[in-house]
Amino acid sequence: xxxxxxxxxxxxxxxxxxxxxxxxxxxxxxxxxxxxxxxxxxxxxxxxxxxxxxxxxxxxxxxxxxxxxxxxxxxxxxxxxxxxxxxxxxxxxxxxxxxxxxxxxxxxxxxxxxxxxxxxxxxxxxxxxxxxxxxxxxxxxxxxxxxxxxxxxxxxxxxxxxxxxxxxxxxxxxxxxxx
Length: 179
Description:
The chain is of the alpha/beta class.
């Protein structure tokens, strides 16, 4: 955590207004008893975010960090489910913001489309639990993230499929008109 704060105060991130705090994609989470006692990967991530924010607040109090920096943490893969326990009393909800990335969702249907029962229903349920469950432990700001490269790939697949279909029609048309 101290290295991150150092980057924010005097390193490459000295002009950053926010940081993205991402844990490993499909990483291996420690399964020893003390780590498991900390909770789910979501619970553990939020404890890490809290600890980082404490270090940032300390640096601001010491006037080493001269601006507020938001922490955007990800909600996806292992952290797609909401926290299972209360967050620390001094958790800084105003500056630690969840960003939901349902990257393996179905892009043919809207996230809340009831027709998509195989994939999106699960993501919509988790989103609802994060944002509207009256007993949720993270009751604050929640953003939807998008990974543009996935949308680009999806668009390219549609474009490629349409192009192939068009070329087949042109080829068939040229065969039919052949004299």
